[in-house]
Amino acid sequence: MTATSPETTLRETVHAIVNETPVLDIHTHLFGPRFGTLCLWGIDEMLTYHYVLAELFRVAPIPYDQFWAMSQQQQADYAWRHLFVERSPISESCRGVLTVLNALGIDVKQPNLDEARKYFASVAIDTYIDKVFTLANVKRLIMTNDPFDANERPAWESGRETDGRFQSALRIDFLFDRWDDAMRRLNEWGYAVTGDLGPADLDAVKRFLSDWVERIEPRYLAASMPATFNFPEDTVRAKLLEHCMLPVARQAGIPLGLMIGVQRQTNPELRLAGDSVGKGHAEAVVNLCRQFPDNRFLVTMLSRENQHELCVAARKFSNLLVFGCWWFLNCPSIIEEMTRERFELLGLSVVPQHSDARVLDQLIYKWAHSRRIIADVLADKYTDLVRAGWTPTEQEIRRDVADLFGNVFERFCGDA
Q1: How far is the C-alpha of 295 from the C-alpha of 254, rounded, in Å?
Q2: Partners of 170 in the beta sheet?
Q3: Which residues of 32-55 are buried (b: 16+ CB within 10 A; e: fewer)?
Q4: How many angstroms separate the CA atoms of 249 and 253, rounded?
Q5: In this structure, is the dihedral angle defined by the CA atoms of residues 238, 240, 243 and 249, taken in order, positive or negative?
Q6: Residue 14: which residues within 8 A CB-CB, separation 6 or more?
Q7: What residues does each domain of the chain span?
Q8: In the chain, what percentage of residues exceed pLDDT 70?
Q9: At 258, is the secondary structure helix, strand, or coil?
Q10: CA-only gyration radius of the chain, Å
């Protein structure tokens, strides 16, 4: 009988610890049941998610308007037939659906969705949330919370989220992207602005942000930025960023989260699936970190081409924490590349992944797939240390994985 090699034993230990360690998912688009229709779950939501639909329209012989006129169940049936029955579902988005169904004990080799729909019709949402958190081994997650969203705002006005697993992040893209509409709403809500972005306007916006920080107690302020975003720049966005968001974040003692690199509505016919990616300006992050050392910046960039620059920037500024593999980067080959690069340049001072889940079920597959990659890369790095004469103990490995899966973020936020 062949003895197990020390390297194999180390790799098995790393995988076991990575799988056992609960994670704090620092960026999602998920909501609990009290947010009503914003709480998305089930097979039809998974199959009509925009990651899946972008693939569907590449192969499905149907005009856009005809598809959008279908009911959600009809859309899901159509996606299942074209992507899972008539073709092997090898893409990451399709594999993710299978991973979820398999974890729930649902046979994935079915010609229709009857079994899946029967399962989801039989389970209550509160019970299902508990099950998903357990299967994904997620201890807490951070939502994306938009005070300008008419569907979300009433839930906050009626009180804070009471389920401690769902934490908040204050997202203010609307201020940047639709300033004219934002002005109208701010005035309706008693925050008088004229649009000249003078001291009175800036004070009103800061008061609005501070009021919402007090109301929802966010872990960070957040905004997604286009690939063209730079700093400094002579734009409404830059003025609001410098004179409103940064002071409010400093005063509240929370980071500013920036997600940089999206190109909106490259193909509007695809609706939510119509956004694309562009190479961003990493020097904007450098300039922010240098100019505002008392602020903390939580940053991810959407273009693969930006990742090395972002890692190097983080080596220069301790007020910068790099996180996650966002959107189009959520592919196993790219996650592996980025995780290796980050570990090699930044050691363990990163947040390797977040789910970005918009449908509750996606927590299951996104963390199952990412844990495997993170464990593989981490095992390789520990093996390199063994070859250099430094053998990690199990206790040290558990400490490191706990750091990667939440403690690094908590310390960066000043909470640990």
Answers
A1: 8
A2: 145, 221
A3: bebbeebbbbbbbbbbbbebbbbb
A4: 6
A5: negative
A6: 375, 378, 379, 382, 397, 401
A7: 6-412
A8: 99
A9: strand
A10: 22
- 277 to 8, 109, 232, 304, 327: CA distances (angstroms): 39, 34, 22, 10, 9
- Which residue blocks in 137-229 are alpha helix, DSSP H? 153-157, 173-177, 179-188, 199-216
- Among the residues of 81-191, which ranges form H helices? 92-103, 114-122, 125-136, 153-157, 173-177, 179-188
Tokens 């197990």 appear where?
4
Q: Model-level pTM greater than 0.90?
A: yes
CB atoms within 10 A of CB 374: 24
What is the Cα–Cα distance from 133 to 107, expressed in whole angstroms?
Answer: 21
DSSP 348: T
The C-alpha atoms of residue 128 and residue 360 are separated, in whole angstroms, by: 9
Secondary-structure class of domain 6-412 per CATH: alpha beta
pLDDT single digits (tens) 28-80: 999 999 999 999 999 999 999 999 999 999 999 899 999 999 999 999 999 99
